[in-house]
Specification:
The structure holds two protein chains of two kinds. By secondary structure, chain A is α/β, with parallel strands linked by helices. Chain A is built from 19 helices and twelve strands. In chain B, 62% of the residues lie in helices and 15% in strands. The chains are: A alpha/beta, B alpha+beta. Chains A and B meet through helix 1, helix 2, strand 1, strand 2 and helix 4 of A and helix 1, helix 2, helix 4 and helix 5 of B.
Chain lengths: 420, 396
């Protein structure tokens, strides 16, 4: 049972040497500390151009971070939006998960709930950075799970050449379409809810989402759906399933006024130049619009080495501090800072003025309704297709396949599906 | 390429994590141990199944046990499963070779199953180390104004490999299906099979080029320019190629047909795009005749699209025997022979009154022209016996 002599010694030496290298001396050939950052891009928008644009934005934060930590190598990995959480879970199971996750706070909280994102260290006083609303958004049971660093909200993008003065109210928008202005609305439920705000239906929607009462009043929801149905009849109002097509239609001069995500302003401005105008979404007669904000946040991965974790936290702190937040907000003018100490210089940019109105006057007015609206759209664990159902109902309503009462039935039948 | 190298070097950052580095060390040790056992097996009687089991088990059993006490073993477990799958294929190969079914299944294990496992494993680990979507977008070069991203190049290479490996089988199945539906001859099926195979390769390559991002107009220009250039520089090859396509389309020469090449009957075994492959019956030699030859020289076909061949035997009988009786005997002998075709039926004729005998000719058909000589010989022997039995005297 003797082993052949020749391969034995070199193989054993090789095994010991390489194992030793991997176990202990890995740092010997490892040039510098590496920080792995994962972020997602929507499937419909997934392209090299979008990747370059988003990585350019992240690079601004990285440059700032590297001024004080030049030894750190920052590696970015992009995932397709819909599967980012699945991929992070798979990677983490192999201890190859990212050190930092850049996503919205909902996904980061979900990853934390499943045990694949770590909470932010409690010894750092994050309350010094975030105001109560952001804290509510970023934390679970008082513990910070995500660190928001960009606030994008929903606004109106229009062609200044054809729309000299943007509509401030829904009746003004209707008047504008009647005079020949071509309007495009996104059919994604979250992106269409601003109209529910303007038409006073958000409270009822939130009540439905929270399952507060079986006999919840749905009069305002009915009025909102009726308005959507009426809008579908207008010759100059078009509904789009994909925001990418909506943006493209404005760029190609096929539309004059659209609802857009602030995160897409840079892309649209690059194509339209100075003819792009940005304003807050039109309010209703009595209630404000309900623009859908998104908080791009950092989350901590669970596989980091102590050095990587330390670097990740420093990256977060560097990206959320007052100076860099203010500098980048002024330079880009398409997002709002998340640091509570950063004031918004609304006089410096009309876009910032619109974002400020959208977030601080419209979104903040619905703080109480937020949780209910999110539940209304996303459903519970036993009703996973809720968003799709709402989406189909709204699409069928605006296409004429459903009547207002039928659409209302689908939307208010939410409770049955949600009950265990 | 810098982006690729940067991405690869970045992966070294994972070694900073102890959970990763210890697992890589463990995998390496298991690989070395399995290699030592494999070398040891060659000199001793260790079963090949044990050899194949050893490595994956060495990796999987401790990994699964350690996982139970919350030690991170994700990489080693996944690697173990992939290694097991790989060895299952090796084991199947061994078993099939032992049972003698190797010719039918074994090539597929090597051509498709193994590469699939390898590619899937590489893709899986790249996706874990980074993100396959991220890597796929890295640009590696520009050809014909088309930006070549890694994802497109990878898909193109896999597609090309699959086309070249599977096109023959797919063509065979489609041709067989068409033969079953249309009830065509076997020769037509073989002809169709080749045409389908070339179509699959041609259209598949074009689709892959378009998928990779090549501009259709640029491709058209290039193919035009290439044809022009090739027409001059590779005149012979192009002539043979075009002749091959022409022969396939015309169908004058088909697999199974017998041609006379330099006086020797040869069966067409394969009609390729550049050359036709023939089997010479005299010495079983394989001949490769450039297709263009069939356009410039006379080719004598025994079969002209049909495999059966009409043959004849000359015999002479004494004047004392009535021709009717002799003809009946000759036809009887031919009809009794198992390899002589019933239709068209054998016919005998009195063809001449010679000086001392009447000359007869027996015409018969054989299904395979290459057997004509053997069957002719057997018939002559049978005629001799039949003449003797019937008291017919054969003369010169």
């Amino acid at each position: 049972m003797l082993l052949p002599r020749r391969p034995k010694i070199p193989l054993v030496i090789a095994a010991l040497a390489i194992t030793n290298l991997l176990m202990g001396c890995g740092k010997g050939f490892q040039p510098r500390n590496t920080l792995f950052i994962a972020y997602g891009i929507d499937e419909v928008n997934f392209s090299k151009a979008t990747k370059t644009r988003i990585e350019g934005r992240i690079a601004e934060f990285t440059e700032n971070f590297k001024r004080s930590h030049p030894e750190v190598q920052v590696v970015l990995s992009v995932y397709k939006g819909a599967r980012i959480w699945e991929d992070i879970i798979r990677d983490s199971k192999l201890n190859l998960g990212p050190d930092l996750i850049i996503s919205n706070e909902i996904i980061i909280k979900f990853l934390h709930q499943e045990g694949f994102a770590a909470p932010l260290p409690a010894q750092i006083d994050w309350d010094q950075t975030y105001d109560p609303l952001l804290k509510e958004i970023a934390s679970t049971d008082g513990q910070y799970i995500a660190a928001p660093f960009l606030t994008f909200t929903q606004v109106a993008c229009y062609n200044k050449k054809t729309v000299p003065s943007p509509p401030q109210t829904i009746p003004e928008l209707e008047k504008l379409t009647a005079s020949g202005t071509r309007v495009g609305l996104s059919l994604e439920p979250a992106m269409l809810l601003w109209t529910a705000g303007s038409l006073g239906a958000i409270k009822e929607i939130s009540a439905l989402g929270l399952n507060k009462s079986k006999s919840a009043d749905t009069k305002a929801i009915h009025s909102w759906l009726a308005w959507l149905r009426k809008a579908a009849f207008y010759q100059n109002i078009s509904f789009f399933k994909s925001y990418v097509r909506l943006d493209a239609s404005l760029i190609n001069n096929e539309l004059d006024w659209i609802t857009c995500r602030a995160s897409e302003i840079e892309k649209i401005r690059n194509k339209m130049g100075d003819s792009l105008g940005v304003s807050a979404l039109p309010n209703g007669a009595r209630t404000a619009a309900f623009p859908w904000p998104s908080f791009i946040s950092f989350g901590l991965g669970i596989n980091s080495s102590p050095a990587q974790r330390d670097t990740a936290i420093k990256y977060i702190q560097s990206s959320t501090n007052v100076i860099i937040q203010r500098q980048l907000m002024l330079r880009n003018a398409d997002f709002l800072a998340t640091n509570k100490h950063v004031s918004i210089p609304i006089s410096s940019s009309r876009t910032l003025q619109a974002l400020n109105t959208s977030f601080n006057k419209q979104v903040r007015g619905y703080t109480k309704e937020w949780p209910g609206v999110i539940d209304f759209l996303s459903g519970h664990k036993n009703h996973p297709n809720r968003y799709q159902e709402v989406s189909s109902a709204l699409a069928d309503l605006t296409s004429g396949y459903l009547k207002v009462d039928q659409a209302l039935d689908i939307l208010s039948n939410f409770k049955q599906g949600s009950e265990p | 390429m810098n982006a690729v190298l940067k991405e690869l070097s970045a992966w070294l950052g994972y070694l900073d994590r102890q959970a990763v580095s210890w697992q890589l060390g463990f995998i390496l040790l298991a690989l070395i141990a399995a290699t030592i056992l494999h070398k040891y097996r060659k000199g001793h009687r260790v079963s090949s199944s044990l050899d194949l089991l050893f490595g994956p088990l060495l990796l999987l059993v401790p990994s699964i046990l350690l996982k139970l006490i919350a030690v991170p073993t994700g990489i080693s477990t996944q690697f173990g499963w992939i290694w097991s799958l790989w060895n299952v294929v090796s084991w199947l190969e061994l078993k099939l070779q032992k049972r003698g079914n190797a010719s039918r299944f074994t090539p597929w294990l090597g051509k498709v199953v193994r590469p699939t496992i390898l590619v899937a494993a590489i893709v899986y680990f790249i996706d874990r180390l980074s993100s396959i979507s991220s890597i796929a977008l890295i640009q590696v070069g520009t050809i014909l104004e088309a930006e070549l991203a890694i994802g497109n190049v990878f898909v193109s290479l896999v597609g090309l490999y699959l086309i070249f490996v599977c096109s023959r089988t797919i063509a065979f199945m489609m041709a067989w299906l068409l033969q079953t539906i249309l009830r065509t001859k076997t020769q037509s099926r073989k002809l169709l099979e080749q045409l389908i195979q070339y179509l699959i390769v041609g259209i598949g390559t074009l689709l892959i080029a378009l998928q990779a991002g090549f501009n259709a107009t640029a491709l058209l220009w290039i193919s035009g320019g290439l044809s022009f250039g090739l027409g001059f520089s590779l005149k012979e090859i192009m002539t043979n190629l075009l002749s091959g396509i022409w022969l396939l389309l015309e169908g004058w020469i088909q697999p199974g047909e017998v041609l006379m090449i330099n006086g020797d009957p040869c069966r067409v075994t394969k009609l390729g795009l550049r050359a036709t492959e023939l089997s010479r019956s005299r010495d079983d030699a394989t001949l490769l005749i450039p297709n263009f030859t069939f356009f410039t020289k006379d080719a004598e076909s025994f079969t002209a699209g049909e495999n059966d061949r009409r043959e004849s035997i000359h015999v002479s009988a004494d004047y004392q025997h009535e021709p009717k009786a002799v003809i009946a005997v000759l036809e009887q002998v031919a009809k009794k022979h198992q390899r002589v075709l019933k239709m068209p039926s054998p016919k005998a004729f009195a063809i001449d009154f010679s000086e001392s005998s009447i000359d007869y000719k027996l015409k018969f058909s054989v299904p395979n022209p290459l057997e004509a000589l053997t069957i002719g010989s057997e018939l002559r022997q049978a005629i001799w016996v039949a003449f003797a039995d019937n008291g017919i005297k054969a003369t010169n």
